[in-house]
Specification:
It contains ten helices and no strands. By secondary structure, the protein is mainly α. The chain folds into two domains: 123 residues, no CATH class; 65 residues, no CATH class. Helix 1 crosses helix 7, helix 2 runs antiparallel to helix 6 and helix 9 runs antiparallel to helix 10. 4% of the residues are buried. The model has no long low-confidence stretch (mean pLDDT 85).
Length: 229
């Protein structure tokens, strides 16, 4: 994440249970196994909700700003506990108020289980071959990246290229890359460092405005401008 700089790494439908069922087929698993897969889909459907990168970046910011890390640590612990409790409460409240089959991805999880049980699938050799080819190509990119200084393609970029969220961000990332390349090419490292506060301000301003509209919509119960998604 730090080296590639990608803001999204959701990897939808790339969880372990997807790969096992897609390659070995649903016939290779008992109904109990498939049921457990469906119950665990809430954290295996995608991986865009990882909090560790944000926590580590927060610790780095606290270290650079010379904050007391012990207090920062306990602040994160308290925030994690409070957010976990409120998230569980919000989910249960929505389930009981609107019906569990009408909220979120619950119908997707158990509709998928229904298909697995009613229409068992055999071994898919093509899927296994695709996984092997993807792994080999990613490994090749990693080797080239480590041994050739000039090699421009990062293996993590190949891994996240198929992300659902990447279709929303790729053009912004492309423009940012062009700007950064132009600054380094014609202005050097000095101009690059001088421009960091300006571009940091652009990012911060976008998040402040986006946060304002989200808070306004939550308090007044009205639809507002979408931020990110």
């Amino acid at each position: 994440r730090a080296e590639l700089g990608s803001p999204v790494h959701d990897l939808h439908r790339s969880g372990a249970h997807y790969m096992m069922v897609d390659t070995l087929g649903s016939r290779a698993f008992t109904p109990g196994d498939l049921t457990i897969f469906s119950f665990y889909q809430f954290f295996n459907r995608a991986y865009r909700g990882h909090i560790m990168p944000h926590q580590l970046e927060g610790f780095k910011l606290a270290e650079r700003s010379r904050m007391r890390l012990n207090k920062f640590f306990w602040a994160i612990i308290i925030a994690a506990v409070v957010s976990s409790v409120t998230s569980f409460w919000a989910a249960l409240d929505s389930f009981y108020r609107f019906g569990v089959s009408n909220v979120g991805k619950v119908p997707e999880s158990f509709g998928q289980l229904q298909r697995w049980l009613n229409m068992p699938s055999p071994v898919d050799y093509g899927a296994g071959l695709a996984i092997g080819v993807g792994f080999s190509f990613t490994f090749l990119l990693a080797v080239l990246r480590m041994n050739l200084f000039w090699w421009p393609l990062h293996p993590a970029g190949y891994a996240v290229a198929s992300n659902w969220s990447m279709n929303l961000f790729w053009f912004s990332i492309f423009i940012s890359w062009i700007i950064k390349y132009t600054i380094l090419r014609f202005g050097g490292l000095k101009l690059h460092r001088q421009g960091i506060p300006f571009f940091t301000g652009i990012i911060l301003g976008e998040f402040i405005i986006g946060g304002f509209w989200m808070i306004r919509g939550a308090f007044f119960g009205v639809p507002t401008y979408k931020f990110l998604f």
